[in-house]
């Protein structure tokens, strides 16, 4: 079961406006391969790094917010997709020009 972590864009803009923000804008962010700090999606181009228990232990999405059994099943599936080469198709399916994250920029109404 997949539960969105944030509301859809239109809903988020409405929430910000209801909370007294105006001039709501957005900015796309693309995860770069040379990041110094790592987070869940920072290894999107290097999926084999998620096989490391140390990486998962130091990523809150795995260590705090996920069911350990589900993570283990996912790691097994990822390992098989890497071994078979299917991971390349999965990665291509997620490519887009909209960025990996969407930042909201808004000003508090005075």
Report what the structure shows:
- By secondary structure, the protein is an alpha+beta fold.
- The chain is built from 5 helices and 2 strands.
- It has helices spanning 9-18, 53-57, 60-63, 68-84, 86-93, and strands spanning 21-29, 101-108.
- A two-stranded antiparallel ribbon has the order 1-2.
- It is elongated and about 55 Å long.
- The N and C termini lie far apart (41 Å).
- The model has no long low-confidence stretch (mean pLDDT 89).
Spell out the blueprint of helices and strands.
Blueprint lengths: L8 H10 L2 E9 L23 H5 L2 H4 L4 H17 L1 H8 L7 E8 L2
Antiparallel strand pairs: 1-2
The percent range for helix content is 40-55%
Q: Determine the N-to-C terminus distance.
A: 41 Å
Order of helices and strands: HEHHHHE
**Which strands sit side by side, in order, in the main sheet?**
1-2
Q: How many strand elements?
A: 2
- Secondary structure class reads alpha+beta
Main beta-sheet strand count, sense and barrel state: 2 strands, antiparallel
Oligomer: single chain
Please give the radius of gyration in angstroms.
Answer: 17 Å
Question: What is the averaged pLDDT score?
Answer: 89
Strand content: 15-25%
Shape type = elongated
- The number of distinct helices, counting runs of at least 4 residues, comes to 5
Low-confidence stretches: none
